[in-house]
């Protein structure tokens, strides 16, 4: 009887020791991973990429029977402030929207951006006989008579980060340049627009 009681007491004790051992190991692993991440961050000190729309123009603008023809040119400056992180832009698509309607889109050649580098990204978008909604057509006609139109410019890219010999997996980067004013008069100065990055 006493032997059975002793065995029953030992089993919960062993179970408790096993749980404590597993818990201690997990906590130790979490601490080690946290320290590794902290050390990597302190060494690399990653900074946010900066994007600015520095030029935009519109040519050959024509509205006829609810259809639009136009050529839109934009220049985006991409700044990588990091001292140890480079960026691969493997795929880039640009588009311009007016309200809820996409006016034009195009694909830009991929490129590699070294650390502490500013890259010039040029995009030409052509709206060719684009069917407009009645409201968009009416509003564009009003804005054309005022001498300028306001659009949003979007860039979508598949990017990879490079640190030393390590390369990350692809991530989707979205850049939005909102409320971009395009003038029909060539002598009016383009207002530089800071763009928002959405990873």
TrEMBL record:
Gene: LOC111304356
Entry keyword annotation includes Membrane: yes
Membrane protein topology class: Single-pass membrane protein
Late embryogenesis abundant protein LEA-2 subgroup domain boundaries: 78-174
Gene Ontology, cellular component aspect: plasma membrane
Top-level division of the source organism's lineage: Eukaryota
This protein's record includes keyword rRNA processing: no
Intracellular or extracellular location(s): Membrane
InterPro entries xref list: LEA_2, NDR1-like
Transmembrane segments: 21-44
The name this protein goes by in its record: Uncharacterized protein At1g08160-like
Pfam families: LEA_2
GO biological process: defense response to other organism
Record key words, sorted: Membrane, Transmembrane, Transmembrane helix
